[in-house]
Amino acid sequence: MTIAITGATGQLGQLVVQSLKARIPADRIVALVRNPAKAQALGVQARAFDYTQPVEDLAAALQGIDRLLLISSNEIGQRGSQHRNVIAAAEQAGVGQITYTSLLHADRSPLSLAGEHVETEAALKASVLPHVILRNGWYAENYTGSLPAALAHGALIGAAGTGRISAATRQDYADAAAVVLTTEGHAGKTYELAADTAWTLADLATELSAQSGKQIPYHNLSQADYAAALVQAGLPEGLAEAIAGWDSGAAQDALFDDSRVLSGLIGRPTTSLADAVRAAL
């Protein structure tokens, strides 16, 4: 069985490749990337693959692939068409099964990201391909990445209020993908994946304070004020507004899930908040 991963040099993709290498021989893993030269460090075969290529070209790159992990594109607003491209190519190439990284509770999520994931899920269900949907929750790194700024400015800011965030690390989600790709019985299933234990941004600030030795409070802002602060910090206006909107969704528990499906799949507890902060620091 040969397994291919799209976006294999991305932050999640690299971790999936490494997790797969711990489970199956490296010569059964194919990295599908825009620039194969950049994938040499992965230690697996690499093929040129761009979501925007013609279906025929993508299908050629998928020849001989038994299972495909479609990691969602990072081009928000173009994901729907790009993913349909890949699905059509997988059908044409005779891929045996496709697994897609979607969004936690995509079918009812208030997050602006949800629409393109729902669109892709529908395309998979309309295809002839056996498929698995991994509805990944938020990455802990989405928040721990802002800890250096919080330390520099003496406060953690956001607009998530007291919303519960069941964020797991990329490694947790990568391990889940590797399990699904290398074991049987997953076709037709949709998995809601999230951390075992949820936390709030105030909890994150408390943990940061404990580990850094500096008192770092959490300041909750309105969505508009948080977006303005992100723009002032140098983010493009559109991205700043999107991030603030996602935090507003988190305030409504859009990023909360307590099913513990993720830890069940990977056979271990998900990474704790304390460990995620420790890794970030």
Summarize the structure.
Helices cover 43% and strands 14% of the residues. It is α/β, with parallel strands linked by helices.
Characterise this structure:
This protein is an alpha/beta fold. The chain has two domains: 134 residues, Rossmann fold (3-Layer(aba) Sandwich), CATH 3.40.50; 110 residues, UDP-galactose 4-epimerase, domain 1. Helix content is 43%, strand content 14%. The chain is built from twelve helices and nine strands. Strand 4, helix 3 and strand 5 form a beta-alpha-beta unit. Helix 1 packs across helix 7 and helix 3 packs parallel to helix 4.
Task: Using brief descriptors, characterize the structure shown.
9 strands; Rossmann fold; 2 domains; two-stranded parallel ribbon; single chain; seven-stranded parallel β-sheet; UDP-galactose 4-epimerase, domain 1; alpha/beta; 281 residues
Query: What would the principal axes of the Cα set say about the shape?
Result: globular
Largest sheet: 7 strands, parallel
CATH topology of the largest domain: Rossmann fold
The helix-and-strand class reads alpha/beta
Which percent range describes the beta-strand content?
5-15%
End-to-end CA span: 39 Å
Tell me which CATH architecture of the largest domain applies here: 3-Layer(aba) Sandwich
Separate helix tally: 12
Low-confidence stretches: none
The average pLDDT value, as a whole number, equals: 96
Which helices and strands, and how do they pair?
Layout: E1 3-6, H1 11-21, E2 29-33, E3 45-48, H2 55-61, E4 67-70, H3 79-93, E5 97-103, H4 114-126, E6 131-136, H5 141-144, H6 147-153, E7 156-158, H7 170-182, E8 190-193, H8 201-212, E9 218-220, H9 223-232, H10 237-251, H11 261-266, H12 273-280
